[in-house]
Amino acid sequence: MKKKDIERFFARFAARTPEPTGELEYANDFTLLVAVVLSAQATDTSVNKASEALFARASTPQAMVKLGEAGLKRYIKTIGLYNNKAKNIIALSRALLEHHAGKVPSSRAALEALPGVGRKTASVVLNAAFGQPTIAVDTHVFRVANRTGLAPAKTPHAVELALEARVPERHKRHAHHWLILHGRYVCKARKPDCPACIVSDLCAYGGKTTA
C-alpha cells in the first residue's frame, strides 16, 4: 500500500471513530494488566464475564495476592489456560508490590519482566494506560495488515515493525484499536464483509466479497 493510501486508510478510521477503545473492561491500570493477561487465547467477552466478579473482589495487587492462586482460579476457570494464568497473575501481583510499590510500571522493559507479560500485553498496557503510541499485534491486526497490503509480513513482530514504520505518527496511538475492531467485525477471518468496509478501495485483497 502506498504512503498516500496509508494516510487515507487511517484518516477514514479517525473520522469515523476519533477515540477508539478496546473492549476489555477494567477499573484501573492493574485490572487492565490482569484483563490483558487473561485475554491471551481467549475472547474479550469471556474475560469480561469472568473479570466482573473478580475485580469486584480484587482490584489491587494486595487484594489479588490475598485472594491467592486457588481463590483466583474459582473466578477465571471458564477462561482458557486458567491454571497458568492464575499462577502468573499472583506472581506478577507480588512482583508489583515488591519492585514497583504496587503500581503498574510505564516502561516496556519493566512490564515484560513481569510473569506472564509478553510484548503484546505490554504494548496494550502502554497504549491504554499510559497513552504511548504502541502497536499491539494480535490475530486481527496480523490478518488485516497482511490481507489489505498495509503491512504484509510473516510474523507478528515483523508486522509490528512494519506498522511502526508505515503508520503516520498522528495515527499511531489509535492504530491498533482501529485495526483490531476492523478485523473483529468487518475484515473477519472466514469471510470479510467487504461491502461494509470503509477502506475497501484502498485494500489489495484479491478475494473481495460482494455480499
Lay out the secondary structure:
Layout: H1 3-16, H2 29-38, H3 44-57, H4 61-76, H5 82-99, H6 108-112, H7 119-130, H8 139-148, H9 156-166, H10 172-185
Helix pairs in contact: 2-7, 3-4, 4-5, 8-10
Would you give an account of this structure?
With 211 residues, the protein is mainly alpha-helical. It has 2 domains: 3-20 and 135-202, Helix-hairpin-Helix base-excision DNA repair enzymes (C-terminal) (Endonuclease Iii, domain 2); 29-130, Endonuclease III, domain 1, CATH 1.10.340. It contains 10 helices and no strands. It has helices at residues 3-16, 29-38, 44-57, 61-76, 82-99, 108-112, 119-130, 139-148, 156-166, 172-185. Helix 3 crosses helix 4 (61-76) and helix 4 (61-76) packs antiparallel against helix 5 (82-99). The longest helix is centred in the middle third of the chain and has 18 residues, at 82-99.
